[in-house]
Amino acid sequence: MDIKEIQNLIKFVAKSGASEVKLEMEDVKITIRTGSGKTETTILQASPVQGVQQQHQVPVAPQQAAPIEVAAPVAESQDSKYITVKSPIIGTFYRKPSPDKPNFAEVGTEISVGDTVCVIEAMKLFNEIESEVAGKIVKVLVEDSSPVEFDQPLFLVDPS
């Protein structure tokens, strides 16, 4: 296992949210511990000639996910009175039906149940996303023409 593979494994584990991962192969044992804003990796590798184990500690810079997670609860408490319109599918988010048309919904637009708020392109199909709530759009959370994941927040709606 080369250093690039180990670095990719560290990044994957840090993003996954797992607190500890142990990987044992014939000649390599890797333990990756994450938590409290830092990631620690221990690599034990048996020397093929001597059979002696060498221990390497590879400190990794804290991932960016930790500060984002700390800031998220504050934002949620301020936005708790709003309803979130989420993406029902994975694809590319578009705010208007075509480049020469106006946006489906702007900040301040009053929407009702069934109104189209955006389009998400998935596998060359354009899916109109309809609102399941009525209210006033207070924030657009996604940039136009950007990829979105399943259940990703798209809009904040004030139901009052």
Explain the overall architecture.
The structure is a single chain. By secondary structure, the chain is of the alpha+beta class. The protein folds into two domains: about 5-65, N-terminal domain of TfIIb; about 80-160, OB fold (Dihydrolipoamide Acetyltransferase, E2P) (Beta Barrel). Helices cover about 20% and strands about 40% of the residues. The protein has helices spanning about 5-15, 65-80, and strands at about 20-25, 30-35, 40-45, 55-60, 85, 90-95, 110, 115-120, 125-130, 135-140, 145-150, 155-160. The strands form three sheets. A four-stranded antiparallel β-sheet has the order 1-2-3-4, covered by helices on one side. A four-stranded antiparallel β-sheet has the order 5-12-10-7, with no helix packed on it. A hairpin with a 2-residue loop joins strand 8 and strand 9 (about 125-130). The chain is elongated and about 60 Å long. It starts with a helix and ends with a strand. The relative contact order is 0.14.
